[in-house]
Design brief:
About 55% of the residues lie in helices and about 5% in strands. It is mostly helical. Helix 3 runs parallel beside helix 5.
């Protein structure tokens, strides 16, 4: 265990990078693009983004901090919140406002980072039970980071199918 909390600092940096990558991938996405349902069963760009941000909000602000997710008091830019279970139907029908979603996301990212800044490296090994799994807090943070990257890939592909540049580089 490090008194300098090197692991927490590293996770914060990785999560910040995941947020920046996701936001960069979303550059240029209009409401029309975000709400365009592609062929097949994949969710829209807007639903992919909403899933990432609301999951992070729910996990950190609701479950870990024991409060209400920001979505409960702020406009998250979605016509309906994501369901707790399978979200494929929601992901093809939800309507989003990209400007409102991105403003909400910035509030979620700031709240997440503020919470992580309160943790010690030792806190990361504390097990936490969520409705979907029981893992150490550090593993949940890893899942949040992975979720942002995975859905950025899906968003990049969906942008490409609409004739736009996907990733920000």
């Amino acid at each position: 265990m490090s008194e300098r909390n090197d692991v927490v600092a590293t996770l914060r940096a990785h999560l910040k990078g995941a947020h920046e990558w996701l936001e960069g991938t979303l550059e240029g996405v209009t409401n029309e693009m975000a709400n365009s349902a592609p062929k097949g069963v994949v969710a829209t760009i807007g639903a992919q983004y909403a899933h990432v941000v609301t999951f992070e909000d729910y996990f950190f602000n609701g479950l870990l901090k024991g409060g209400a997710p920001i979505m409960m008091s702020e406009n998250a830019g979605v016509s309906s919140p994501p369901p707790m279970g399978p979200w494929s139907d929601w992901g093809r029908s939800v309507k989003v406002s990209t400007d409102d979603q991105r403003a909400y996301a910035q509030k979620v990212y700031a709240a997440t980072d503020a919470y992580l800044a309160t943790l010690t490296d030792a806190d990361l090994s504390r097990e936490f039970e969520a409705p979907f799994a029981k893992l150490p807090i550090g593993e949940f943070v890893r899942v949040i980071i992975l979720n942002a990257h995975v859905h950025a890939g899906e968003i990049s592909c969906l942008k490409g199918l609409q004739g736009e540049k996907g990733y920000p580089i």
